[in-house]
Design brief:
The complex is a heterodimer of chains A (363) and B (350). With 363 residues, chain A is mainly α. In chain A, 74% of the residues lie in helices and 0% in strands. Chain A contains 15 helices and no strands. Chain B has 350 residues and is of the alpha/beta class. Chain B has a single domain, classed as 3-Layer(aba) Sandwich (Rossmann fold), CATH 3.40.50.1820. Chain B is built from 14 helices and 14 strands. In chain B, the strands form four sheets. An eight-stranded mixed beta sheet of chain B has the order 1-2-6-3-7-8-13-14, with helices on both faces. Classes of the chains: A mainly alpha (363), B alpha/beta (350). At the A-B interface, helix 4, helix 9, helix 10, helix 11 and helix 12 of A face helix 1, strand 1, helix 3, helix 5 and helix 7 of B.
Chain lengths: 363, 350
């Protein structure tokens, strides 16, 4: 039993009771209505991150429209520089968003139901993964299924956190690219060529962006964040795979873990033995076909020729048999034709030997 | 003086021309599509499980010269060194009298390990070439990861390898400019797994794109639009696109081992490579080696390849630097000729 469980449960219930109280400053009502409001708000805000992004995109669209409308008659260099500056401001705004309440300091009051919940339940820790990691996930799962849910939720939150951390690094890299671009746009001197086409401007952007990207991925921090992102995704995938397999097992449908023993590679020795037996069987079949064809050919050759008769039809039918036999006699050669013309018989036999030898080495 | 001097009329014309090209591109691309891969005639020599050994048809071979077995990386397809007429390293080597064989790795199953590739399959195919040619020892040419396999194999079976050519082969995986190595340094190999034990090739492709994302996902396609009227250039573009993105799936155990042993453990340098339970120490190599690397290789920086020289003190070691990048070495018109010439001359040297 987790000694912190009762404490965690108590904290959770207290947090829930806080949530279902009427929203401060909102319309007074009973607890049910407040709970419903909270659910609606939580659904709408989906973790409090979306409105800021949506707002940023809206403002970006407005800025782009206004910029295009106001670009008539402006110096193109000035216009590009202004656009670059504006993009940088947007990235700055995104980067300035606190990754946690601790980052933002006490001045940032919880604004969404999720944040109020986190504050009440987790003592102000935000984002919620910090809350869950330290309390919710310590609650005993009691069963494989619930443990799986806990593991899955934890893995999902870790993956989200890793993705956010990597995105923030990439945003910072993008800002560095814009800084470099802006600096090169205004650079003076003989070593800088004048840009007279959009294509050249775009190439300059690519050059700056690649420089910034190389600088970004050269840092140890980026490698760590990238590794954490890949690892978190792989861990989530693994847990989700196990959960899905359990679900299918409950429905009595075979999952990968049931199929794997059948599809996984057999030990090499076993594979070599199977290969050898297959080759033996193929050889036997070829020999049998050859013997059958030869016997049919002999039978056809020794069969007395039918006398000419007016009843020609049955005779003609009988005469077709040797022709069929001749066709069959040619069949054993068919596999050989499928083989590459230059793969000599000796080489094929050698390959068979080879396969057996490999099996012997492995077994 | 401000750097940007754009004139509204010229910008408008440029945008119009761009739209024009963009509209024509689908037709031009469709007209240039050629589904054939690998153009030099070849014959199947043998198969071992999912892998195959091919011999390229040659009009003139020097019977005194041991045959050359090409070993490419698991992330590629066999046509990687035989893209199209005029862009084929294989064809250029045949032209110079070499008897060229190639291992096709095929589609893996989920249980294959590094020792399956670098020892079991490679040894079986080397033996097949030896038998077919009558030479007791043959020449090996390893490409990128195939070069790593070839180095391991030559250490383990020096009696079967006459001379070894490594091309764009990473040896020191921890050089400062090795961005790919840095990116995967903190990836947990134990978490690498996929459906039926294989990792889709597209995952590796995405990783390669991340090394130069702006050039490889933006500028390259803009450049393509400039060549819509050049049928050969468009054909080459599409062939290259296929070359780059047509990666087979990779066996997860082999990938895990390669990641931990080489990218993370830098095994050749630290002396901690083990294939099939046997230690692989490059210092034991006495086989003559030609190491070819590309000056502007962003996947395998020159210094990552050139580190080989210091690790093989007892081998007759030569190196050759080519201009261009990792892929250009095989499909660049002049690069393929230069590589073939260099390799043929070196192998012919008595």
């Amino acid at each position: 039993m987790n000694p912190r469980w009762e404490e965690a449960q108590d904290a959770f219930l207290r947090a829930w009771s806080t949530i279902v109280q009427p929203v401060p400053g909102g319309t007074a009502g009973d607890n049910h209505a407040a709970g419903a409001d909270w659910l609606k708000a939580a659904w709408r805000e989906a973790g409090a991150g979306a409105p800021a992004f949506a707002d940023a995109y809206r403002r970006f669209g407005e800025w782009l429209g206004a910029g295009l409308a106001g670009s008539r008659g402006r110096d193109p260099g000035e216009l590009v520089a202004a656009m670059t500056e504006e993009l940088k401001k947007h990235i700055d705004a995104l980067l300035a968003r606190p990754a946690s309440v601790a980052d933002a300091g006490a001045a940032t009051a919880p604004s969404s139901p999720w944040e109020r919940f986190a504050e009440a339940f987790g003592g102000g820790r935000w984002p919620p993964e910090a809350v869950f990691a330290q309390t919710w996930f310590d609650v005993p799962g009691y069963s494989r299924l619930r443990r799986q849910w806990q593991d899955g939720a934890q893995a999902w939150l870790r993956q989200q956190a890793a993705a956010v951390a990597l995105q923030r690094r990439q945003l910072a890299g993008m800002k560095d690219a814009l800084d470099r671009f802006a600096a090169r746009l205004t650079a003076d001197g003989d070593d800088t060529a004048t840009i007279t086409s959009l294509r050249a401007l775009f190439e300059l952007w690519i050059e700056c962006a690649e420089e910034a990207h190389q600088a970004m991925i050269a840092g140890e921090d980026y490698d760590r964040d990238f590794g954490a992102f890949v690892n978190a995704g792989a861990a989530l995938r693994k847990i989700a795979g196990e959960a899905v397999a359990d679900f299918f097992a409950a429905l009595d449908v075979p999952a990968r873990r049931d199929a794997s023993p059948g599809t996984a590679r057999a030990p090499a020795g076993e594979a070599a033995e199977l290969e050898r037996r297959l080759q033996d069987t193929l050889r036997e079949m070829a020999a049998m076909r050859g013997a059958l064809a030869a016997a049919e050919a002999r039978a056809a050759a020794t069969r007395p020729r039918p006398k000419k008769s007016k009843k020609a039809a049955p005779v003609k039918k009988a005469a077709k048999k040797p022709a069929t036999a001749r066709k069959k006699a040619a069949r054993p050669q068919e596999p050989a034709r499928r083989e590459p013309a230059t793969a000599a018989r000796g080489e094929r036999v050698a390959d068979e030997f080879d396969i057996a030898a490999i099996g012997a080495r492995r077994s | 003086m401000p750097r940007v001097r754009l004139k509204a009329g010229e910008v408008a014309r440029e945008l119009l021309a761009f739209e024009h090209r963009l509209a024509r591109a689908p037709l031009a691309l469709a007209g240039s599509f050629d589904p054939r891969t690998g153009t030099t005639p070849r014959e199947l020599v043998s198969r071992v499980e999912g892998t195959a050994l091919h011999r390229y048809t040659s009009v003139r071979r020097d019977p005194a010269l041991p045959p050359l077995l090409v070993v490419y990386a698991l992330v590629n397809r066999p046509y990687m060194a035989d893209l199209m007429p005029g862009r084929s390293l294989v064809a250029e080597m045949l032209e110079r009298g070499l008897d060229v064989y190639l291992i096709e790795w095929g589609e893996p199953d989920g249980g294959l390990t590094l020792s399956d590739y670098a020892e079991r399959y490679l040894d079986a195919h080397v033996d097949a070439v030896r038998r077919a040619s009558g030479h007791a020892a043959i020449n090996l040419l390893g490409i990128c990861q195939g070069g790593v396999f070839s180095l391991c194999y030559t250490v383990l079976h020096p009696e079967k390898v006459c001379r070894l050519v490594t091309t764009v082969t990473p040896v020191d995986f921890h050089t400062p400019r090795d961005a790919l190595s840095r990116l995967v340094r903190h990836v947990d190999p134990e978490l690498i797994d996929g459906a039926r034990g294989v990792i889709p090739g597209a995952v590796l492709n995405a990783l390669f794109l991340m090394l130069k994302p702006y050039r490889l996902t933006q500028l390259k396609y803009l450049d393509m639009l400039e060549h819509l009227d050049d049928a050969d250039a468009m054909r080459l573009f599409l062939k290259m696109e296929r070359w780059i993105f047509d990666s087979p799936p990779l066996a997860a155990p082999a990938l895990r081992e390669f990641l931990s042993t080489f990218y993370q453990g830098n095994g050749f340098v630290t002396g901690r490579v083990e294939i099939g339970g046997r230690a692989v120490n490059l210092r034991a190599l006495v086989t003559p080696i030609l190491n070819v690397y590309a000056k502007d290789d962003h996947l395998v920086p020159p210094e990552a390849s050139r580190a080989l020289g210091a690790l093989v003190p007892d081998a007759a070691y030569s190196e050759y630097e080519l201009p261009g990048g990792h892929i250009g070495m095989y499909v660049g018109k002049s690069s393929a000729v230069r590589v073939a010439e260099t390799v043929a001359n070196w192998l012919s040297r008595r």
